User: Which sequence fits this backbone?
């Protein structure tokens, strides 16, 4: 088995990526190869410098890099020689079983969706993000950006994907509680999409508990919350940004007095523990569920440990046979109406 | 002029509401009457106790209360004797010019929309919330829940409402920068609604600067960001909840050590200043723009000062002739296409 790692993606690439690959290869007990995709001469030097020469790490040259701030569509249109494109293509071609990147998130979504592509029988892969909650277990929001306009059945598929992710990978609940993101608790509240999806979700064999509101993302009362990728992406970016702004605003106020500054210093270890818990990269990054093999998009600011974790999670997806379990769940959990649509479309 | 105050709405009602009304009446230099709507005997006692007897405050009896956790639709369907219903009706009937409530937010939206009703020439009132940003000036998000499914022209009207709110009431920018909430910066990114609204916004005479992403709500780079009420409501509730959860999670970590606890105590004044800046109730609450008179929905946890601020803001709306300015802006800023629709619908 091989994992294709985009060695040039991320704020600390390629250094952290190479170090992360080395950490992973040293810790990993199975025989897993890593394709380190990127600037060959740079990667060779780094591998040598950090003692990765005799590990099962193979360099695949890529001349271009998708920058963190360029339009996501560039990866599929303009930069076919980029490390991200080539790493994704290795999975598409079956040469690798997992694709891991810390690069431009939008581009990573596009690469996973259009280059790696959907697994057989999956209409629309969805990106899942595990949000930290009050309850020491995450809530998975899906989709956070791979599918902008969705039909009701897509949200039902996302629910099954989220269910499978919680059950097989995060293992935080054996019978995950599933909700649909809306603007009121009662059935009948929401936009057209929600109103049409609600009865379908009720018909599934999922543990569907009804509408979730924005506030429920962080309470831990739900294991999975589904929404279309437009809403999910806005929620994700709003939350990330609010976290940062709150910290900045507090820092600004703290700096106005010496006493507060001392207070902040005394609090530092607690703040660091909080930061670690609050960061979704602690869960190894965001997987694009329902693609061929496994696609893991991790944080742009990933350090070596984060890259190692993302590689581990990608391995877990492959070893668990996540896609088989997902397909099986789609067959056993969906209502007859949706199974018929799937049969017609995929001959399943 | 009269302001109708829902005296029974809010976590601290009726005490804070009565105190807030008294504070307002004492500070206000104009001849403004307040209708204090709620349980007559309770309100009489409180008014007497806190020295509000000789102020221009008139009690209007209401036998019922819309509770904070009941379905919003109850205010219009089941509780026509509630303080919220009766206060809103005073504006509808022209007996008061402004409606202020700290009650159940969903019910307050329903009361503003269906009982007070839209101002002549306004198709869809929208709720505006001023979010705190890094730049010591707010970003107004509109609509945050009054209109679940929207057509492109509604978002354009919201943009004009937000523009007018910034310019006439918050006064933080004379030529407000307007954006549309989406999931990528470039034109062409977004869901169907965004893609159809973008060219319309470009045709207006507003200072339209393009797509805003979730993260832009808190940067202060935009003065107004428009979205449909479904997305806006989810963003609002997600943000409120995330703020609370972050504080709770930090507290939990802090309590694990005495040193951190001392640190937190030293930081307390800074944290309080931050909390004040971060709370949108500091801007006097969220107005429902485009209704008859003025409708101000303030925070459920409103104390006397917050109620006073909300009353002041409602007065400002009336004194500024906000609705006239809004109508004027709709006439001067909209593109011809939308003006024609408005002419046909309203004979304007």
Assistant:
């Amino acid at each position: 088995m091989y994992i294709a790692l985009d060695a040039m993606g991320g704020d600390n690439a390629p250094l952290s990526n190479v170090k992360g690959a080395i950490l992973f290869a040293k810790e990993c007990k199975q025989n897993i190869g890593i394709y380190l995709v990127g600037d060959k001469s740079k990667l060779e030097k780094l591998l040598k410098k950090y003692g990765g020469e005799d590990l099962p790490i193979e360099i695949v040259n890529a001349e271009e890099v998708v920058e963190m701030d360029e339009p996501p569509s560039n990866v599929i249109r303009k930069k076919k020689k980029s490390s991200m494109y080539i790493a994704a293509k290795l999975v598409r071609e079956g040469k690798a079983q997992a694709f891991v990147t810390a690069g431009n998130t939008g581009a990573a979504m596009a690469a996973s969706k259009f280059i790696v592509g959907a697994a057989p029988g999956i209409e629309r892969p969805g990106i899942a993000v595990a949000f930290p909650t009050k309850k020491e277990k995450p809530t998975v929001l899906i989709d956070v950006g791979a599918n902008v306009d969705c039909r009701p059945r897509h949200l039902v598929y996302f629910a099954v994907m989220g269910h499978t992710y919680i059950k097989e990978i995060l293992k935080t609940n054996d019978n995950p509680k599933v909700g649909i993101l809306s603007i009121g608790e009662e059935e009948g509240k929401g936009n057209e999409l929600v109103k049409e999806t609600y009865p379908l979700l009720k018909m599934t064999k999922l543990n569907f508990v009804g509408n979730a509101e924005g506030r429920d993302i962080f309470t831990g009362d739900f294991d999975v919350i589904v929404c279309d990728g437009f809403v999910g992406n806005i929620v994700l970016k709003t939350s990330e940004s609010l976290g940062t702004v709150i910290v900045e605003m507090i820092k600004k106020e703290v700096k106005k007095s010496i006493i507060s500054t001392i207070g902040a210093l005394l609090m530092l270890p607690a703040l660091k523990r909080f930061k670690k818990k609050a960061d979704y990269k602690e869960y190894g990054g965001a997987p694009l569920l329902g693609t061929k093999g496994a696609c893991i998009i991790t944080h742009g600011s990933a350090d070596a440990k984060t890259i190692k974790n993302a590689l581990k999670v990608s391995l877990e997806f492959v070893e668990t046979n996540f896609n088989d379990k997902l397909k099986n769940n789609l067959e056993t959990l969906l209502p007859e109406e949706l199974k018929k649509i799937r049969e017609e479309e995929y001959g399943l």
Summary: The longest strand of chain A covers residues 33-38. The longest helix of chain A spans residues 229-254. Chain A has a mean pLDDT of 90. The domain at 2-122+290-321 of chain A is CATH 3.40.718.10 (Isopropylmalate Dehydrogenase).
